Amino acid sequence: MDITEVLLIIIRWLHAIASATWVGGGIFYVLVLRPSLKQLKSDTMLSIAEDFRTMVTTAMTVLLITGAILTFERLTSGFVGTLYVVTLGTKIALALYMFYLVRFIKTRYRENSYGKLTSLISGPTTVVILGAVIFLLADILNSIFEKGLVS
Questions:
Q1: How far apart are CA 84 and CA 61, in angstroms?
Q2: In terms of C-beta distances under 8 Å and separation of at least 24 residues, what long-range contacts does 114-122 make, across chains too?
């Protein structure tokens, strides 16, 4: 095993850890944190929100950097076809939309500003669902790639 293979293993591991943190954190936020925030004092809520925001920003940064490296590595491998590229493009588009929702749309103003339909497709639950779909697409991509190796 050469240094490039070791680095790619580390990058894949970091990407997997950040993905699990992202989706797990989202599930925790939707099921535990958001319902309990209503009962906390304002300064406690701000402290929790700051800690959670740090985790989200770190996971997002790691996912973007490692995702770009892994995308380049796979697309230049010579073992991918059109199906892989289309699936990867879908995964990237969903991830970017998910990051956009988290980074630029504030939850508390969403329903009042945009209406119920937009609130439904841009809320925290949507982010969790998108994260789960992206996990599924990652597994599909691995399957497509492995089939490309044996073809």
A1: 24
A2: none
